[in-house]
Write a structure and sequence with these properties.
The chain is 35% helix and 17% strand. By secondary structure, it is an alpha/beta fold. It folds into two domains: 241 residues, 3-Layer(aba) Sandwich (Aspartate Aminotransferase, domain 2); 102 residues, Aspartate Aminotransferase, domain 1 (Alpha-Beta Complex). The strands form four sheets. Strands 2-10-9-8-5-3-4 form a seven-stranded mixed sheet, sandwiched between helices. The protein has a three-stranded antiparallel sheet with strand order 11-12-14. Strand 3, helix 4 and strand 4 form a beta-alpha-beta unit. It is globular.
Length: 360
């Protein structure tokens, strides 16, 4: 069977080896005579999967001992609310850097909980770059600074992070977690929905500095309090067992690929293939992101006019490329090239782009 040339933004391509391994175990997981999703979440067989997932995340992301890894449902979108509910106290201000629609959504939810402040924004420049964050402007009573490390819709990515120890740094890493080595000590909390680099949808990974757990009020509903997850190894209630099993397989795959240094190298090479086509096209393809802010996960571009973009997308679809349309909010074209998208597929897209240009 031919695997699709899948450039979806999320849910997105998973490593073929992971899907095959899951298929092998589909009816009978480790000789239990049951599928993973038929096991009790209190069984020792499931517990082993759960614990392995946490220990592999710790290994791959080099997470120090003073952090907890939590599995929560509700997507990254629920974290837009849980972050301020747990960490934004009365009298404090939460700072948000606006670098795209997902940061705006995070800010919108925080505004319902407490006081916020826009620390930087590139909105009036169509989010073409990561805005400059002025650390001098840091407020004394800031609860945290929230950033979006990769902007899935606009195709921009932070390449270095603010490092002000005074203010806890929180990052939505939904679309670039596991794509490059991480210095976790720079961050106090990161979160990521799994459905891009980590696995299928259904589980959100939250990594939080233990010290921060003291801030959550006991008045919060249990399922919205980080402590409920931290105290119960994310097994207070039934976790999304199938999603966590697939996450474990993806993490094993990433480990076998050589870890995040190796994965970063592959991602740099894949992104370069497409950005080179854009840069060498004499303006036929126009990248949306400014060069310094370009994402290695989502390559966004337009053609010289809207009609040409439509024709490109139509012909790309006919040629078997999936998911190249830009987000419904901005249109244009977007190739999402997460960890699991093979370099050969990226090469095929580059060749298609060059051939399309030559024909037109
Ligand atoms: N943040 C970012 C950066 C995203 O790309 C997305 C989803 N594409 C979200 C948040 C929302 O994630 P979810 O659908 O898991 O709530």
């Amino acid at each position: 069977m031919n695997r699709a040339l899948n450039f979806n933004a999320g849910p997105a391509a998973l490593p073929e080896a992971v899907l095959k391994e899951a298929e092998k175990n589909w009816l009978d997981f480790n000789g239990t005579g049951m599928a993973v999703m038929e096991l009790s979440h209190r069984s020792k067989e499931y517990q082993a999967v759960h614990d392995k997932s946490i220990s592999l995340l710790k290994k791959l992301l080099s997470i120090p001992d003073d952090y907890e890894v939590l599995f929560i449902q509700g997507g990254a979108s629920l974290q837009f609310s849980m972050v301020p509910m747990n960490l934004l106290s009365k009298g404090q201000t939460a700072q948000y850097v606006l670098s795209g629609s997902w940061s705006e959504k995070a800010l919108k939810e925080a505004n319902k909980i407490g006081k916020t402040f826009i620390a930087a924004s590139s909105k009036d420049q169509k989010y073409r770059f990561i805005p400059e964050y002025n650390e001098d402007g840091d407020l004394d009573n800031a609860a945290y600074l929230h950033i979006t490390s990769n902007n899935t819709i606009y195709g921009t990515q932070w390449h270095s992070f603010p490092s002000n120890e005074k203010t806890p740094l929180i990052a939505d890493m939904s679309s670039d977690i596991l794509s490059r080595p991480l210095d976790m000590s720079n961050f106090d909390l990161i979160y990521a929905g799994a459905q891009k680099n980590l696995g299928p949808s259904g589980v959100t990974v939250v990594i939080i500095r233990k010290e921060l757990l003291e801030k959550s009020s006991d008045e919060l509903p249990s399922m919205l309090n980080y402590n409920t997850y931290a105290k119960n190894n994310s097994l207070y209630n039934t976790p999304p067992t199938l999603a966590i099993y697939l996450l474990t397989l993806v993490l094993e795959w990433a480990d076998k690929e050589g870890g995040l240094e190796q994965i970063e190298k592959m991602n740099e090479e894949k992104a370069k293939i497409l950005y080179d086509v854009i840069d060498e096209s004499d303006g036929f393809y126009l990248g949306h992101a400014l060069k310094d802010s370009r994402s290695r996960m989502n390559v966004t571009f337009n053609l010289h006019n809207e009609e040409a973009s439509k024709d490109f997308l139509h012909q790309a679809k006919e040629a078997g490329f999936v998911g190249l349309g830009g987000h419904r909010s901005i249109g244009g074209c977007r190739a999402s090239i997460y960890n699991a998208v093979p370099a050969e597929h990226v090469q095929k897209l580059a060749e298609f782009m060059k051939a399309f240009k030559n024909k037109n």
